[in-house]
């Protein structure tokens, strides 16, 4: 079993053990996050500018943290906003970060900014996903890539990761399936490690069950490669893209902090030409 697989399984067990009928004590949750970040009590206490003795008392329940201390410790541990709220509740405080739906009027400016970015990226494909890789929005250039996908995979919520791995999704058309899916699995594994989100962990385990060839070694991909491309067969052409990810800076809303924009740029002139022609045919 690989290190990535074993650590993901440990995260599954940790998540399961952290979800009994009664929510775990704040100190238990804090200890789990500290251990997940591979920090000693001394390391975290130094970062948070408190004594290691006091931190030990907080973890064991002998001392109650203040609201400010909970937030300070969560920041030092790089805990996601959703889980920071959970830490606050476990410590007896109200959540600090609002968790609105994306169609809430308070997020109108962010939603408009997202749509502008997606539209401006045409004639190249771009999409937005939530924390579980469910499709939130996409520009017009995504639709042609989904033409051959099974209808069941396009029923909301559309999971973008599942689309990439599923034999009735994009997998049969992905020329470098092993390399691309290997990259996606590594990325998802890092998210599982960072968040311990049970839904992400379940998705990770599901994706590993799909028939994806073994990944080649990085050296065999090509010594001059700058990034793992996404190479997809479309008709008689093979289109090649490099991808980038954008997130909102300094978000204070849970939903906004979990939103990611995935943009694809042509990796060669032929792909750029093909996408411009495709955009004209869709106009």
Secondary-structure-based class equals: alpha+beta
Report the sheet-strand fraction.
Answer: 5-15%
Alpha-carbon Rg, integer: 22 Å
**Residue-averaged pLDDT:** 89
- Strands of the widest sheet, in order across it, are 2-1-5-4-3
Total DSSP E strands = 5
| First-to-last CA distance | 50 Å
Assembly form of the protein: single chain
**What do we call the CATH topology of the largest domain?**
Beta-Lactamase
Which second-level CATH architecture of the largest domain applies? Answer: 2-Layer Sandwich
What is the string of helix and strand elements? HHHHHHHEEHHHHEEHEH
CATH C-level category of the largest domain: Alpha Beta
Count of discrete structural domains: 2
- Helix content class: 40-55%
Helix count equals: 13
Q: Could you give a short account of the major beta sheet?
A: 5 strands, antiparallel
Question: Could you list the spans in which at least 5 consecutive residues all have pLDDT below 50?
Answer: 1-21
**General shape:** elongated
């Amino acid at each position: 079993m690989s290190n990535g697989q074993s650590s993901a399984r440990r995260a599954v067990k940790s998540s399961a053990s952290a979800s009994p009928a009664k929510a775990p004590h704040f100190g238990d949750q804090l200890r789990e996050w500290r251990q997940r970040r591979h920090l000693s009590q001394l390391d975290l206490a130094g970062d948070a500018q408190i004594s290691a003795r006091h931190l030990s008392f907080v973890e064991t329940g002998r001392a109650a943290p203040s609201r400010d201390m909970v937030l300070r410790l969560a920041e030092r541990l790089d805990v996601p906003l959703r889980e920071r709220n959970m830490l606050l509740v476990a410590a007896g405080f109200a959540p600090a970060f609002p968790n609105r739906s994306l169609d809430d009027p308070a997020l109108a400016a962010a939603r408009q900014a997202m749509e502008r970015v997606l539209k401006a990226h045409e004639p190249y494909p771009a999409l937005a996903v939530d924390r579980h890789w469910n499709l939130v929005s996409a520009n017009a250039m995504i639709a042609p890539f989904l033409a051959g996908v099974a209808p069941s995979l396009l029923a909301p919520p559309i999971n973008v990761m599942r689309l990439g791995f599923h034999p009735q999704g994009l997998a049969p058309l992905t020329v470098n399936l092993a390399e691309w899916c290997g990259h996606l699995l590594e990325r998802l594994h890092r998210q599982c490690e960072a968040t311990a989100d049970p839904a992400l962990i379940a998705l990770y385990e599901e994706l590993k069950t799909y028939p994806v060839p073994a990944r080649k070694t990085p050296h065999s991909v090509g010594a001059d490669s700058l990034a793992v491309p996404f190479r997809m067969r479309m008709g008689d052409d093979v289109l090649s893209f490099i991808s980038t990810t954008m997130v909102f800076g300094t978000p204070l809303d849970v939903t906004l902090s979990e939103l990611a924009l995935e943009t694809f740029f042509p990796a060669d002139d032929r792909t750029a030409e093909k996408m411009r022609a495709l955009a004209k045919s869709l106009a």
